[in-house]
Design brief:
Elements: E1 9-12, H1 22-37, E2 41-44, H2 58-69, H3 93-105, E3 108-111, H4 133-141, E4 147-150, E5 156-161, E6 165-170, E7 178-180, H5 188-198, E8 203-207, H6 214-223, E9 230-234, E10 237-238, H7 254-259, H8 264-272, H9 287-293, E11 304-305, H10 308-320, H11 324-331, H12 345-355, H13 365-369, H14 376-385, H15 388-406, H16 411-425, H17 430-441, H18 449-469
Parallel strand pairs: 1-2, 8-9, 10-11
Antiparallel strand pairs: 3-4, 4-7, 5-6
Helix pairs in contact: 1-9, 5-6, 8-10, 11-12, 12-18, 14-17, 14-18, 15-16, 15-17, 15-18, 16-18, 17-18
The chain binds glutamic acid.
Glutamic acid binds near residues 14, 15, 47, 206 and 210.
Length: about 475
């Protein structure tokens, strides 16, 4: 495959201020997919200069979530790389050096902001630039430490977004923005550009909420003499109420979904559909298929809606693609051992295969297994719930299954033996299967009967049927 982008370097740049939510992970997914598609590199960079907002443990949690999703990085705070450091808080001299260079070239200037007349970013006012020299000196000698601001042009600033094309911003509407605060800390816009330039990032992929930052950042790249990267602003994700997605409205944390047993490949797949579509319209794609098919050309600009129902559907389809034994292996840690002490090995595989069509995430497994194993109390209640005719059916089935149990316990033969009993007694359909199901599970509906019989195994089936038919254990 010939690549339009010979060497693609993308990055995911979260602030370690909390858990990763689906909204921010989507940004990581696209950065990762694009890097992998082009055989480029994907970096993880911690934007942690806002020390008060950093949350202890958040960096590790972010890395754990990304790893679990399979979004591995080639460069990052833990593995290093050619663009070290990958934590913005480390070696902050680089921001001061860059600011100094911009002062020297005249692109930036010292501004004696006073508390109280904080400005104006975006208002188009640039009072500091015009502050008379005497006033600057007066403020300096009064101990005001200047901030450093970048001069904005009066002309139109044009940026190119790979999805939306050219976007123009009125230069005169943009205030000269701060690069370095008076305490020497860089602002987001400055730190991001210094590091993107230094780390050779070729594609800046982030949410459309950042669009208003991009002209400032583009001007900074120019002022630093660095090439502008390609900008890709992913469409905004809205909640089902069509308002901007917030945690409250259901932007689940990745960690919550992991604990609930959502398949990571299903999550990556679902997130890839928030802003992108496959050329053939296929929505269920493995991670390898996503890597192969992803392209900037098929990214859209229109807002997209986070739909937890669809996430569940995509995840259910991913789970449906697994074999019984693989699904059982993944489900095992989610099975409540206290409630289902005997579901192990083959029996677990059979039980899972009985309930699998209901699963969108593995955390649901106990709810469905209950249909196989409702607990002794429910089963004891069944005896009284069966009328004499039903009890007769259950008793006859129990007797017939003794032979099948001796000859091996295969679904087909077990079901055939039950049907044969029905024939002999002149009952079929619900008249036959309802009492049997009731006797086994205490309910008239639930997982496929054959799967229930396999999951329980012969001993447990006979015990339950005999209890239900009140024929005592012989
Ligand atoms: N730390 C920024 C954020 O999380 C990074 C944005 C960017 O990619 O430039 O929004």
């Amino acid at each position: 495959m010939t690549s339009t982008y010979p060497s693609v370097r993308t990055r995911f740049a979260p602030s370690p201020t909390g858990a990763l939510h689906l909204g921010n992970v989507r940004v990581a997914v696209f950065n990762w997919l694009l890097a992998r598609h082009h055989g480029g590199s994907f970096a993880l960079r911690m934007e942690d200069t806002d020390l008060e907002r950093n949350l202890p443990g958040a960096e590790d949690a972010i890395m754990e979530d990304l790893r679990w999703l399979g979004l591995d990085w080639d460069e990052g705070p833990d593995v290093g790389g050619p663009g070290e450091p990958y934590r913005q808080s480390q070696g902050m001299e680089r921001y001061r050096d860059a600011a100094r260079a911009l002062l020297t070239s005249g692109a930036a200037y010292r501004a004696f902001d006073l508390p109280g007349d904080e400005l104006e970013e975006g208002s188009g006012r640039r009072p500091y630039r015009e502050l008379p020299r005497e006033e600057q000196e007066r403020r300096a000698s009064a101990g005001v430490v200047p901030v450093i601001r970048l001069r904005m042009p009066d002309e139109v600033v044009e940026i190119h977004d790979e999805i939306r094309g050219a976007i123009r911003f009125e230069g005169k509407d943009m205030g000269d923005f701060i690069l370095l605060r008076s305490d020497g800390r860089p602002t987001y816009n400055f730190a991001v550009v210094v590091d993107d330039a230094r780390q050779g990032v070729t594609h800046v992929i982030r949410g459309a909420g950042h669009l208003s930052n991009t002209p400032k950042q583009a001007l900074l790249f120019d002022a630093l003499g660095a090439p502008r990267p390609r900008f890709i602003h992913l469409p905004t994700v809205l909640g089902t109420d069509r308002k901007k997605l917030s945690k409250r409205e259901g932007a689940a944390a990745v960690a919550e979904l992991r604990e609930a047993g959502y398949p990571p490949g299903g999550i990556v797949n679902y997130l890839s559909l928030l802003g992108w579509s496959s050329p053939d319209g296929e929505e269920i794609l493995s991670v390898a298929e996503l890597v192969e098919r992803i392209s900037v050309e098929r990214l859209g600009a229109a807002d997209t809606v986070y739909d937890p129902e669809k996430l569940r559907w995509v995840c259910a389809r991913h789970l449906a693609g697994l074999s019984d034994s693989e699904l059982a292996r993944r489900a095992a840690p989610f099975v409540d051992r206290g409630r289902f002490p005997e579901l192990e090995g083959e029996r677990l595989v059979a039980a899972i295969s009985g309930v699998r069509s209901h699963l969108s995430h593995l955390g649901e497994v106990n709810r469905w297994l209950e249909g196989v194993d409702p607990g002794e109390e429910v089963l004891r209640g069944v005896r009284d719930a069966l009328d004499p005719e039903m009890r007769r059916v259950v008793g006859a089935v129990a007797t017939a299954l003794v032979r099948v149990a001796e000859e091996g316990w295969r679904e087909e033969e077990v079901m055939a033996a039950i049907r044969a009993v029905g024939k002999a007694l002149g009952v079929r359909g619900p008249g036959l299967f309802h009492p049997v199901r009731l006797g086994l599970t205490g309910a008239t509906s639930g997982p496929e009967l054959g799967k229930v019989l396999m999951a329980l195994g012969p001993r447990e089936v006979l015990r339950r049927l005999r209890t239900a038919a009140d024929i005592g254990v012989v």
